[in-house]
Amino acid sequence: MNLDSLIQDYNNQGIATHNRRLDFIQNDVQIPSNLIQKLKDFQIAIPSWALGTGGTRFGRFSGGGEPGTLEEKISDVGLLHRLNKSSGAISLHIPWDIPSDANAIKKLAADHGLAFDAVNSNTFQDQANQALSYKFGSLQHTDRAVRKQAIDHNIEVIKHGVDLGSKSITVWLSDGSCFPGQLNFRRAYERTVESLKEIYAALPSDWKLFLEYKAYEPNFYSTTVGDWGQSYSMVNKLGDKAYTLVDLGHHLPNANIEQIVSLLLMEGKLGGFHFNDSKYGDDDLTAGSMKPYQLFLIFNELVDGMDAKGMNHAKDLGWMIDASHNVKDPLEDLLQSVEAIQIAYAQALLVDRKALEAAREANDVVRCQEILQGVARTDVRALVAQARLELGGVLNPVEFYRSAEIRKQLIQQRGSKTVATGL
Ligand SMILES: [Mn+2]
Fold it and tell me: Which residues form a coiled coil (predicted)?
């Protein structure tokens, strides 16, 4: 039986239960009339490096049926999108995923209903054929020739993106230092800005540059773009097309990410998101698996801040997953991440903002908490499933993926010993 009819059968079996759950929440909660449509419009890009089992610095335990080529990676994202109808974009990492024939790749992606989201450059590793080393940094490097090589790489990544119809580049730098005294902070900062300006100058007029920050790792004493303040000050020096990108795992412990998001949005400099979750550091765990309340609070600020500026939730920021780890089937993990993001978004859309604002003005702290926690404790899964159903997706993607034994089929097609390119 083909996938479409399997999905139809599966949905038919579950529809009565689904309708009962949907009725319950619709009777129980005041739901804005456009909420389902907003959920339907909201697409989350899948990173090409998350389709294989992620490695740690201690080892990597690959699963079977991992995609061995860019074509197979696109096919995997196409499958995710077929199931949840909310993964309609792929974010490529260069040089791990250089398309040999851009037009053919573009067509393949379009056949799966996929667009290309931000392309990602890589100057945190040395490649086999590379002339100069990034051991001591790339855009910050003391040697102009190394900086030039890193700048040229970023410009090449933009060109690949243009060929694919992408509209943004994400720059994440591991540049920094491991020991006190190693680096002149001011010079490293200035060199990085100078290098970024050259990359920015190569940006097409309808493109955005996202500058991602990270507190530490692989450098353990200083990171040159280490927090949102450093990214923000740099993108301000570049121009209107440069924005800060927030990766949830790139903060020091207990950082108030929702406040960072709120202020970056207010300043018009929040460009995009990398979703993941963590307990200790940059753990790259499934979105919403550790701190679902934090994810909701972040979305609460996103919805509030975007509405304040009249922004389009679906289109005006880059929404991407950046997670990759060791023990799950990567496709199941990505389905879980997308679902968690949609749940947090749906809950944020349910917040009674007038009531919240009134409680804030009255300094009614208890009422503020009741409003937010009341929403966070509401089970909105039926609303997310309804949006998926209306788009032709699957009521419960993870359950369906298992019942249809999709991984088994991928192993039959690709073999049990496959390793996807990536971390
Ligand atoms: Mn990231």
Answer: none
Helix (H, G, I), strand (E, B) or coil at 310: coil
CA 140, CA 176: separation in Å to the nearest integer?
8
CA of 247 to the centre of ligand 1 (A): 5
Q: How far away, in angstroms, is 274 Cα from ligand 1 center?
A: 5
pLDDT, average across residues 381-391: 98
What is the pairing mode between strands 119-120 and 168-172?
Answer: parallel
pTM here is 0.97
Distance 120 CA to ligand 1 centre (A): 10
Nearest to 314 by CA among 38, 36, 32, 34: 38
- pLDDT(419) > 80: no
Domains of the chain: 47-342 (3.20.20.150)
If you measure from the C-alpha of residue 202 to the centroid of ligand 1, how many angstroms do you get, rounded to a whole number? 22
Phi, psi angle pair for 181, to nearest 5°: 90, -15
- pLDDT of residue 422 exceeding 80, the answer is no
pLDDT digits (tens, 9 = 90+) for 110-151: 999 999 999 999 999 999 999 999 999 999 999 999 999 999
For residue 51, what are the contacts with CB-CB under 8 A and spacing of at least 6? 66, 67, 73, 76, 77, 330, 331, 334, 420, 422
pLDDT digit string, tens, across residues 70-93: 999 999 999 999 999 999 999 999
- pLDDT at 310 exceeding the cut of 70: yes
Residue 351: which of 29, 37, 21, 41 has the closest Cα?
29
